[in-house]
Give the backbone structure.
Amino acid sequence: MKIEVLVVNKKMKISFIINILLSIMTVIALIISISGFKFMYGYEPYPELIGVPIYSYYTVQSNVFMGIVSFVFANREYQILKGKKKEIPLIYYIFKMVATVAVSLTFFVVFAIFGFMSKGGHAPLLRNSYLFFHLIIPIVSILNYVIFEKTNIIKFKHIFYGLLPTFLYEIYYVINIIMNMKNGTISLRQDWYSFAQNGILITILVAPLMLGITFCLSLVIWKLNKKK
């Protein structure tokens, strides 16, 4: 029992450090995005989208969400490690799962879809702030959740919460398309993912596909997170 407690405490300490790093990396990536600072140079993946507010993107929203959740989660872990609290409540794990699924979708879409659509391939999508948003933060978040934050208190019914960010973003995106479409066409600055360039129907068809992918990611992450 004592050895088991030591192992749990060791994993929590590692998780705490990683969660703090995730919060810091999110802030750094945001600063890079907002300031336009570049430490890597090359072909811009979508030059026609320059000027679109960064908060419009699911990528940024999901990563910021993960940064906030990680900070709150780390605070709770710190309280437990200091003996001020005894356990991490279910709601904390649910929020962590939802955030992990959100950045996992970002990672999946970039590498499985947008990387092949980009004129410069995957490389331009991994430069500067993209390096954090598309690669480092998602991978570190997933590994942290399925290795150091294992739990059995999350049940199958809870995985549907993982679909909420995608569902809400889809509503936001479709409403934005409808409000800004003129004579059946819409500017790329209002359709930054190009879903509606061939009509609103494509956007509506993509929505359930993305929800299906999100559900699969949520299911896989839930299973990997479970204690054996």
